[in-house]
Amino acid sequence: MDKLRAMTVFREVARQESFTLAAAQLSLATSAVSRYVAELERWLDVQLIYRTTRSISLTPAGRVYLEQIEDILQRVDRLELAAKQQQGSVSGVLRITAPLYLGQKWLSPFVSEFMGQYPDVDISVFLTNRHVNMVEEGIDLALKIGRLKDSNFKYRPVSQTLLTCFASPAYLARHGAPKTPDDLKAHNCLYDFAVGPSKRWHMVDPTSGRELSVAIGGRYEVNSGEMVKQAVLDGMGVGYLPDLFIEEELVSGELLPVLEEYRQAPVPISLVYPQNWGVTTLLRTFVDAFVERYGADWCG
User: Which residues of the chain register pLDDT less than 50?
Assistant: First the structure.
């Protein structure tokens, strides 16, 4: 029995919940699909699928086995793709995720140019402010803001940003500017809860160098930096976002920085991909071009 082929067939049957549909997807006869699954069950000495005249479903053992082989099959798929792309052709599918604002600001124009240059490339972009499990969700590349700690991933530094506390001139004229982080208690702080569940802004004491975790309160919270920025522009309160979100408004004077001396050290912006996935020609070409467009040299 070709065990790897049998695993692939079983995975497709589980996805389609049908031997017939799996056979069509794999360009096999339905009888061949059924035989692969039956041989796999005999080899494992366990039933993987419940079969009725109308439907199929995975047994508990089948669900566990599917989870266990998924990573193996994904690695095989990527090794095959990498082998093909080592010949130098920039082609294939690239699945990318990024925070909403950063994706719209940087990825959107760049992807259009890249796909125009490489017509054999398909790109799928998933913009979200939630945490994405790249391995489970089949993501090849992520654009991330923040310090990276997971050794299971490789990263390519792109740029950096500063977290900035800011308000509109109209709001500051009415309420005054906070002089210390403690003064924020008297202000309506507009919170982007995509950055974390606790209502705290992290700053650094300019005298001691000690990091401060500042509890803030306010009447408005949202999981969108763009909506926080708009609320601050409307004079609703004080915001705290990466400065790349508000750079144009800071230059124009529509927004003003506050508590500048309490800023944290710059926060990195990086491209990230799983450590155990091969670096294909497509992935390397995309990353190299993106870094050349937006930022830093190769580091690590």
Answer: 87, 297-300
Fold topology of 3-85: Arc Repressor Mutant, subunit A (1.10.10)
Measuring CA to CA, how many Å separate 20 from each of 15, 36, 41, 57, 278?
Answer: 12, 13, 19, 14, 33
Burial group, residue 142, by CB count within 10 angstroms (0-12, 13-18, 19+)? buried
Burial string for 179-201 (b: 16+ CB within 10 Å, else e) reads eebeebeebbbbbbebbeeeeeb
Rounded CA-CA distance 176/294 in Å is 37
Based on C-alpha coordinates, what's the Rg of the chain? 25
Residues in contact with 194: Cβ distance below 8 Å, sequence separation at least 6, in sequence order: 99, 129, 130, 223, 224, 225
Report whether 139 contacts 96 (CB < 8 A). Answer: yes
Superfamily of domain 92-161+267-294: Periplasmic binding protein-like II (3.40.190.10)
pTM: 0.62
> What pLDDT, on the 0 to 100 scale, is given for residue 300?
35
So what's the pLDDT on residue 298?
Answer: 35
pLDDT at position 195 is 67
Q: For 163-262, which CATH class? A: alpha beta
Give ∠ CA 211-200-260 in degrees, rounded to 5.
55
Residue 233's pLDDT is 96
The two tokens of residue 238 are: 């004080």
